[in-house]
Amino acid sequence: MEIKVMKNILDANNSLAEKNRSFFKDRKITAINVMASPGAGKTSIILKIIEALGNDIGISVIEGDIASSIDADKIDGLGIPVVQINTGGGCHLDANMIKAAVDDLRPGHDSIIFIENVGNLVCPSSFDLGEGMRMVIASVPEGHDKPYKYISMFEGADVVILNKTDLIPYIDFDSESFYKGLRSLNEKAPLFEVSCRTGEGVEELAKWLKNAASGKNI
Ligand SMILES: Nc1nc2c(ncn2[C@@H]2O[C@H](COP(=O)(O)OP(=O)(O)O)[C@@H](O)[C@H]2O)c(=O)[nH]1
Ligand SMILES: [Mg+2]
């Protein structure tokens, strides 16, 4: 019985997600579902990419959090259109929430929309939002074993970022084990090593994303 209820919820979400996907596709909007643990650097990476891309491309942001507008305030500080969704305890965003936020934001044609999901490596991977790209961020202090434990998150990624590389000298992080775990699940997703603190790797990531948004490398 429980399984059937869950299936109904996912079916309803999936059909709404397809509507969102058509909306984005018709307008050539690159919708990026940004997923990671709390504190891995989702907001920091979005901010860094916004800075790196400058005025090259239109950008808007949907911020998902259980509570507060802390992240949306940071995005707003850069003058970027942003909507904050508070899930009030919910551990993931769903397609219905995205539809409402997009109606509010009205993103332009050929733009990028970042959707920062609730910090969590489990539930967000089951809920399609209608995005065109899944960006999964891991960070050095979380440890190298995350791909082995959160399989569907890393399996479904279109791009993977390893953030906080500035901390590698201080942390027992086995890069080889991380790559091996990731590649056993996902051979295709490009991996970018980034430090939001030093800026290392940010330009390369932003350049790749700009090309992806213009259909050059996806
Ligand atoms: N040392 C270091 N700290 C970082 C880096 N990126 C983010 N942080 C810090 O990690 C904390 C969480 O970052 P945030 O972007 O809010 O993570 P989120 O919860 O995934 O959105 C903040 O204190 C950031 O300043 C990084 O590359 N290196
Ligand atoms: Mg955040």
What does this structure look like?
This protein has 218 residues and is an alpha/beta fold. The protein has one domain: P-loop containing nucleotide triphosphate hydrolases (Rossmann fold), CATH 3.40.50.300. Helices cover 40% and strands 18% of the residues. The chain is built from eight helices and seven strands. It has helices at residues 2-26, 42-53, 70-76, 95-105, 146-149, 151-155, 175-185, 202-213, and strands spanning 30-36, 59-65, 82-86, 112-116, 133-139, 159-163, 191-193. The chain has a seven-stranded parallel sheet with strand order 3-2-4-1-5-6-7, sandwiched between helices. The model has no long low-confidence stretch (mean pLDDT 96). The structure holds guanosine-5'-diphosphate and magnesium ion. Keywords: GTP-binding, Hydrolase, Metal-binding, Nickel, Nucleotide-binding, Zinc. GO terms for molecular function: GTP binding; GTPase activity; nickel cation binding; zinc ion binding. Pfam families: cobW. InterPro entries: CobW/HypB/UreG_nucleotide-bd, Hyd_mat_HypB, P-loop_NTPase. Belongs to the SIMIBI class G3E GTPase family. HypB/HupM subfamily.
